[in-house]
Amino acid sequence: MPQRTPTPSARQTELLEAAYAYALAHGLADLSLRPLAEAIGSSPRVLLFLFGSKDGLVRALLARARADEVALLGRAREPEAPVGLVPAVERVWAWLAAEEHRPLLRLWAEAYTRSLVEPDGAWAGFARATVEDWLAALADCQPPSERDGEAGAVRRTLALAVLRGALLDLLATDDERRVSAAVAHQLALLRS
Questions:
Q1: Low-confidence ranges of the chain (pLDDT < 70)
Q2: Whole-number pLDDT of residue 1
Q3: Is the dihedral of CA 75, 155, 82, 133 positive or negative?
Q4: What pTM does this model have?
Q5: Is residue 1 part of a domain?
Q6: Which H or E element spans position 184?
Q7: N or C: which end of the chain has fewer CB within 10 A?
Q8: How far apart are CA 118 and CA 76, in angstroms?
Q9: Looking at residue 20, which CATH number applies to its domain?
Q10: In sequence order, which residues have a C-beta less than 8 Å from that of residue 20 and are 6 or more positions away?
Q11: What per-residue string of b and e applies to 83-101 under the rule 16 or more CB within 10 Å gives b?
Q12: Within a domain: residue 166?
């Protein structure tokens, strides 16, 4: 029988949201429970009680960030009436390029990288799961005739590589105009 995850208490949910806002502003790399707890109106002891450990809290924060990422992808998905890969990538890029989303995207980049260099512990599987999430969302945007073939998998993998590479470049330089022009150029090639 599968184990059920207990429903979080209202206080746990409240503290997770506050900790998530803190992580968006400060990142997770040097997360220390004492400053975090002070900033969100709690104590390290309460955080440890509610999340089990610092790793448990980091896992909860990563799950929360991934929920935002999946919500973004949900806006591009239309499996019943696929919009096509290029229009979906255009929608996703417009969202990614918006300045107000940079804190979430920096947190995503940090978690993605940590998952690659520290494959065990709280970060385990984050990078792989996000790749799978994005590829599934992009597949839902492709018409079945394209989605179900090897060429469709290659096209959505290329689209994902363009989005990820452009996102990292944008986060590094804040040169939205140049990076968006490069994405548009690549999408023109993908369209043909």
A1: 1-6, 75-81
A2: 45
A3: negative
A4: 0.79
A5: no
A6: helix 176-191
A7: N
A8: 31
A9: 1.10.357.10
A10: 61, 64, 65
A11: bebbebbeebbeebbeeee
A12: yes
**pLDDT at residue number 18:** 94
Q: Establish if 105 belongs to a structural domain.
A: yes
Name the amino acid, one letter, at 134: W
**What 3-state DSSP class applies to 108?**
helix
**CB atoms near residue 44 (< 10 Å):** 15
What's the domain count of the chain? 1
Residue 142's CB is within 10 A of a number of other CB atoms, namely: 22
Q: Is the dihedral of CA 8, 14, 18, 20 positive or negative?
A: positive
Residue 152 lies in a domain: yes
Q: Could you read off the pLDDT of 148-174 as tens digits, one per residue?
A: 999 999 999 999 999 999 999 999 999
Whole-number Å distance between alpha carbons of 26 and 155: 35
Enclosing domain of residue 100? 10-191
